[in-house]
Amino acid sequence: QQQVKQSPQSLIVQKGGISIINCAYENTAFDYFPWYQQFPGKGPALLIAIRPDVSEKKEGRFTISFNKSAKQFSLHIMDSQPGDSATYFCAASQNDYKLSFGAGTTVTVRA
Amino acid sequence: EAQVTQNPRYLITVTGKKLTVTCSQNMNHEYMSWYRQDPGLGLRQIYYSMNVEVTDKGDVPEGYKVSRKEKRNFPLILESPSPNQTSLYFCASSLWGTGPSEQYFGPGTRLTVT
């Protein structure tokens, strides 16, 4: 049973557009929500992370929005570029404990 | 260069033939973990270790063994591989006990069991 549900499974966006990936969780004890980016043939790498005491975190073109009451968080990729084409995983953990990953979203940015 | 290495990168084997996938990190991390990645299921944790001689089961431990005799190494052992263990495997490491920290992943091992 997946503790973090991620959608959509895949998305296609035009260059310059906005990509949005959503995740939902049930365990209210989760206190750390990272996003990992994975390119083909590579291992995942940390992209951006948020703690539940803030509602939004922005790093460059990547923004996490966090809604604690709805138990949802999302990744927004602004001004999407072909180099952003990758698989994105949301994840959650509690008390520095193990990460539970979502199923992943494959993003394709068309030039 | 700080990194997690895995060997082999690709492996084709037959049912029942014991195999070991090695994992090594050079960042002096306490925490190490093994995941398998399957389409539509994301990354699922197999085993993890919070330090030398301390290991515990993750979400899908059946059919796997691990050991942590040295801080830098965390091998994954399949005593009797079966076709349902065909998957992409990742080793990861991170700091432990200092708050949430980035997990560093290895390049992956693609295993096929026929």
What does it look like?
The complex is a heterodimer of chains A (111) and B (114). In chain A, strands 2, 4, 5, 9, 10 and 11 form a 6-stranded mixed β-sheet that branches. Chain A has strands spanning 4-7, 10-14, 19-25, 33-38, 45-50, 56-59, 62-67, 72-77, 86-92, 100-101, 105-110. With 111 residues, chain A is mostly beta strands. Chain B is globular. The N and C termini of chain B lie far apart (36 Å). The model of chain B has no long low-confidence stretch (mean pLDDT 95).
Helix content of chain A: under 10%
Outline the biggest β-sheet of chain B: 7 strands, mixed
- Runs of chain B with pLDDT <50, length 5+? none
Oligomer: heterodimer
In whole angstroms, the N-to-C terminal distance of chain A is: 37 Å
N-to-C SSE string of chain B, H for helix and E for strand: EEEEEEEEEEE
Task: Estimate percent helicity of chain B.
Answer: under 10%
The assigned structural class of chain A equals mainly beta
DSSP helical segment count of chain A: 0
State the main characteristics:
heterodimer, A: 111 residues, mainly beta, 5-stranded antiparallel sheet, 11 strands, globular, B: 114 residues, 7-stranded mixed sheet, 4-stranded antiparallel sheet, 0% helix
Provide the fold topology:
The complex is a heterodimer of chains A (111) and B (114).
Chain A: E1 4-7, E2 10-14, E3 19-25, E4 33-38, E5 45-50, E6 56-59, E7 62-67, E8 72-77, E9 86-92, E10 100-101, E11 105-110
Parallel strand pairs in A: 2-11
Antiparallel strand pairs in A: 1-3, 3-8, 4-5, 4-9, 6-7, 7-8, 9-10, 9-11
Chain B: E1 4-7, E2 10-13, E3 19-25, E4 31-38, E5 42-51, E6 54-57, E7 65-66, E8 76-78, E9 87-94, E10 104-105, E11 109-113
Parallel strand pairs in B: 2-11
Antiparallel strand pairs in B: 1-3, 3-8, 4-5, 4-9, 5-6, 7-8, 9-10, 9-11
Question: Concise description?
Answer:
Chain A has 111 residues and is mainly beta. Chain A is 0% helix and 53% strand. Chain A has strands at residues 4-7, 10-14, 19-25, 33-38, 45-50, 56-59, 62-67, 72-77, 86-92, 100-101, 105-110.
